[in-house]
Amino acid sequence: MFGYSKIKVILICCVMALGVFFAAPNFMPKRVYNDLPKSMRQWYRPVTLGLDLQGGSYLVMEVQTDTLVAEKLESLADLTRSALREDKIKFSGLKVADGQMTVKILKGEQLMQARSVIHKQESLPLDIQANGNQLTVAYTDEALEKMKSQAVEQSLQIVRTRIDELGTKEPQIQRQGLDRIVIQLPGVQDPSEIKALMGRTAKMTFHLVDEETSVQSAQAGQLPADSMLALSEEEGYVVLKRAVVVGGESLDDARGIYDEQGRPAVSFSFKAAGAKKFARATRENIGRRLAIVLDGQVISAPVIQSVIPNGQGVITGSFTVQETNDLALLLRSGALPAPLTVVEERVVGPGLGEDSIRSGTIACVIAMIVVLVFMVIVYGFFGIIADLTLIANGILLFALLSVMGATLTLPGLAGIALTVGMAVDANVLIYERMKEEMAHGVTVPTEVIIRGFSGSFGAIFDGQLTTLFAALFLFWLGSGPVRGFGVTLGLGLATTLFSSILVSKVLLMAWIKQKKPKKINL
């Protein structure tokens, strides 16, 4: 009947049954839902409410890309210093300042060779200008843009990892503009711990201690080019070799533990390549001190007693249990390529969220009731069919949002309210087309319904398609709540087509088969 096989009818019924099943958590009392097995609640869950509906914290953090450029130039300067010495190119005044590196080549005939050596030290494009025997080195605009974009993307992933490890439920983390990251934490009223962890770069490196240079000499300006002065928690200042023995990027895992004296500590292990570097460094430097440096500060500088072949070690110090857990989390998630600073912070109270939910719910309920009553008044029994398809549409929409793990915001509620109107609009087009067919002399109920659906499908599909384009652009170009509106609107269009065309037709098929009417009253 109506061109629908039994298999198609069964599939439509199965889709609706799945819709009811996955939408159910949104309408269950909390105590009933909480009684479900924990393993089931991990995938069978209601739609998550956004920050504007349940309250929480909103942070905008900026990636300090200028610091990144300065660090890259310092690294380039170290590589250049070593490379020029290896090639026996005499130079002086190698320094980094104001976003560029300068070096004076003492022999003019070695100027071109020096340029070539510097270019080889960096894979990104460099702009090298010569002023007499002095070379000025800076990154090109293309290199800077690429470097900053990569830093923000990397920071985004690390921030997401850190927040996920904290167990924060349903955070929203996304990029904003060129160098900012927006973090929304529903239900978190005190973001101080989050800010503290996000603000730490957590860049860990291992350096040998320069035993030949005293701290007093270094502070007096007599610091070798291959050494640096670092602040130490235990000793005040320590002179270290600039060369990194092994970096934190080689870490495989880090965990909070207790050492042999029962004090909180952090155990760490390296990946295979890092473990080999660490073993070689400890083998070649037994009796020397190896400093563990975190964000430019020396945590500890123990003496290497023996070879450490397995790439495992322990960081000790005057830590609390919370500090060791935080440090282990930071090391596991990786170092930020550049520092993050908070440029905007808002805390939304749960009361505002409750008001938003109440207002949005009232608006949706009023809109639903008005539409349901209107359809019954205008179309009678067919209005009831339209109302049932409208309810089916809402069930499918909430089921899709739940399965996708989508976050419902206030604009998302507006998208749902708009979907209600558009779903009814499709039924109106079908019924008005049926009226036109009857006005042209078609009286057989089955034929009226078939022509009504087929004649109105083009208008319904075109209308939904043009609105879908708008929803896609909102999702693509928008951010935050705007994308939420686009998501609910786009999903609503899909469920509207399914319910208004397929579900509505199945209901009318069942009515025709059961009642066998002689004519249709519209």
The chain-level mean pLDDT equals 84
Beta fraction of the residues? 15-25%
Can you tell me the overall shape?
elongated
Estimated radius of gyration? 33 Å
- Side-by-side strand order of the widest sheet: 11-10-16-15-9-12
**What gap, in angstroms, lies between the N and C termini?**
21 Å
Work out the helicity level. Answer: 40-55%
For the secondary structure, the number of strands is 19
Number of separate helices: 16
How would you describe the overall organization of this protein?
With 522 residues, this protein is α+β, with helices and mostly antiparallel strands. Helix content is 53%, strand content 20%. The protein has 16 helices and 19 strands. The chain has helices spanning 6-23, 30-34, 38-41, 51-54, 65-86, 111-120, 141-165, 192-198, 215-219, 272-284, 321-333, 350-379, 381-404, 410-439, 445-477, 481-515; strands spanning 48-49, 56-63, 91-97, 100-105, 126-131, 134-139, 172-176, 180-186, 204-208, 227-232, 236-241, 246-247, 251-258, 264-270, 290-294, 297-300, 312-315, 340-348, 407-408. The strands form 5 sheets. Strands 11-10-16-15-9-12 form a 6-stranded mixed β-sheet. The chain has a 4-stranded antiparallel β-sheet with strand order 7-8-2-18. A hairpin with a 2-residue loop joins strand 15 (290-294) and strand 16. Helix 12 (350-379) packs parallel to helix 14 (410-439) and helix 13 packs antiparallel against helix 14. It is elongated, with a radius of gyration of 33 Å.
